[in-house]
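Appendix B, Record 12. Input sequence as logged:
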Amino acid sequence: MDWLDFFQSITDGLLFGSIYALIGIGFTLIFGVMHKINLAYGAASIAGAYVSIAVAAYVPLPALVTFLIAAIGSGAIAFLIYLANFRFIPLASPLATLMATVGMLILIDEIVVHATDGMPQPYPALFADIYIEWGDFGLRGDLIFIFVLSLIAMVVLMFMLYRTRLGIATRAVAQQPVAAQLAGISLDRTNALTFVITGLLGGLAGAMIGASVGVLSPLLVVPITVKGLIVCVIGGLGSIPGAIIAGLAVGAFENFFLAFRGVTERDMYVMLLLFVFLVFRPGGIFSRSVARD
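Logged structural output:
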């Protein structure tokens, strides 16, 4: 591998890593607000993308509208996950909610498998026929679009968190839920809206995965869930900036070893990266100092 191949693989990985950043943000936002992990999040993201192509099979839609329907579909599924796995389970039972989301992940995956007979489904892409070249170096148009769309989604999310009443309520519930209730903030409403927002991001990420790869497959559910958790841990649990940086870093790291060592060893090195962080920086990139009361 020469320097051009190295730079090309890193650049493509950074562009694709924006999808991992969105998935990581979803895990991080739910953990930051409820201090719980939703393992069904990746499944909801892919399921939302399947909803969009199911609608497109009956009504011809532009690719951008298909992306929007994927986000809406995933948001609706995320709300149902909140009702089934979090709303009526006591907050003092974290293991119960964790195992409930494992069951929901398997359920969603099985529904997708039975609905599609386990066969990959083609997914529409935007700007797939565009390739920008500078000598031997080039950029795929669809990856550029995915990166820009991810940045727009991140900017909108940060604006919502820091410039709207919902964002203030979300941050209040994350920091001091009891004080937030005393101030008149509904925990159930805030938590439900947080799930819907993360579902919108996840559906957008699921659609971008399908568009970049060209197909959707039930086999994507587990890898996306694992990559999202890795990004969440490396970035620092509860840190949205950390999830963004970690998502881009994991994408670049993964694509480099994909080009350097092949697809069979790609995930192995990503797991090794997680192991290094757990040993030397277990709190992640933006770790917070923890002190006993």
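The CA atoms of residues 122 and 130 lie 19 Å apart.
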